[in-house]
Backbone:
C-alpha cells in the first residue's frame, strides 16, 4: 500500500478465498502487527494467538462451524469462507469488565490491516466461535493452552478477486462538541 488512507480504503471483509497457502513470512508479519496492538495493563501475559493453517484442522473447524444460509434456508455455509488461515485470539482470566474483548479486537484489527497491506483478504470471525468452543474434539486439535478461552478470530488468505478500494461513506453519526 502507498499510505495509511489507501490501507483503510482497501481493508474490507473478504468472503471468498483462493486455496493458495500464505507464505510463512507473511504470517509472521501479520502476527508481528498484532503484537504491537495496545492491550490493557498486563494483558499481554494472558493473551494467546493460535494460527491454524493445517488443512485437516481447518476442515474439522469448518465442519464444526457450518452455518445455515439466511438467504437459502437449508443450505449450509463455510464460516471460514474457504480461507487457508484461521487466527484465533484466546485469553486467560477474563476480567469482570471484559476489557479483554477490546484487547483482542485491537490485536485483530492490526493483523487485518497488515494482511491488507500484504494484499491479502481477511474477515473478522465471531458468530461461529460458540459452536467451536462447544466441540471438545475440535478444540483439542487447536492446542489452546489450558485455562484460555477463545474470544475472537479472523481468517485471511489470497482473495478470489483482487482487493478494491471502497468508497468512504458517512454511516456513523458524529457529534463534535
Residues:
Amino acid at each position: 500500500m502507498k499510505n495509511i488512507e489507501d490501507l483503510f480504503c482497501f481493508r474490507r471483509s473478504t468472503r471468498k478465498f483462493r486455496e493458495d497457502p500464505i507464505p510463512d513470512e507473511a504470517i509472521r508479519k501479520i502476527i508481528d502487527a498484532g503484537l504491537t496492538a495496545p492491550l490493557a495493563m498486563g494483558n499481554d501475559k494472558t493473551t494467546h494467538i493460535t494460527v491454524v493453517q493445517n488443512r485437516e484442522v481447518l476442515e474439522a473447524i469448518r465442519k464444526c462451524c457450518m452455518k445455515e444460509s439466511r438467504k437459502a434456508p437449508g443450505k449450509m455455509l463455510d464460516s471460514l469462507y474457504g480461507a487457508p488461515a484461521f487466527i484465533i485470539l484466546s485469553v486467560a482470566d477474563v476480567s469482570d469488565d471484559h476489557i479483554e474483548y477490546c484487547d483482542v479486537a485491537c490485536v485483530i484489527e492490526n493483523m487485518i490491516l497488515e494482511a491488507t497491506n500484504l494484499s491479502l483478504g481477511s474477515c473478522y470471525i465471531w458468530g461461529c466461535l460458540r459452536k467451536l468452543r462447544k466441540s471438545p474434539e475440535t478444540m483439542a486439535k487447536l492446542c489452546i493452552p489450558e485455562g484460555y478461552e477463545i474470544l475472537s478470530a479472523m481468517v485471511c488468505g489470497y482473495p478470489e478477486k483482487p482487493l478494491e478500494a471502497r468508497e468512504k461513506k458517512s454511516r456513523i453519526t458524529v457529534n463534535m462538541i
Notes: Strands lie at 47-52, 67-68, 76-77, 85-92, 121-125, 148-157. The helical segments are 4-10, 24-35, 55-65, 99-117, 129-133, 136-142. The domain at 4-157 is CATH 3.40.109.10 (NADH Oxidase).
